[in-house]
Design a protein that fits this description.
mainly alpha
Length: 88
């Protein structure tokens, strides 16, 4: 139904990139050029993640439009379960 493997791979790559960037900030972000490079790399990673998520958004929209009653019933059931869990 959904190709979550690609999304998980992208999120893991983003996590590794961000952690690597934050680890290098202590010694490497002292000047403006390093700060600009840092922000550019973060923006590129976020744009890549946005592209992947928009593809998943399209799949979800298509699934909901193909099965509106099933989607509505699923959302209602999830709401009931979350409501019961929040009451406790």
């Amino acid at each position: 139904m959904f190709n979550t493997t690609h999304l998980n791979d992208e999120l893991q790559a983003l996590k590794i990139d961000v952690s690597r960037l934050f680890n290098t900030t202590d010694e490497g972000i002292r000047d403006t050029a390093s700060a600009d490079a840092f922000t550019t790399r973060i923006k590129e990673a976020l744009e890549e993640l946005s592209e992947v998520l928009s593809g998943e958004d399209t799949q979800v929209r298509q699934l909901i439009s193909e099965r509106p009653i099933t989607s509505l019933a699923s959302a209602f059931a999830l709401g009931v379960v979350v409501g019961f869990a929040m009451r406790r």
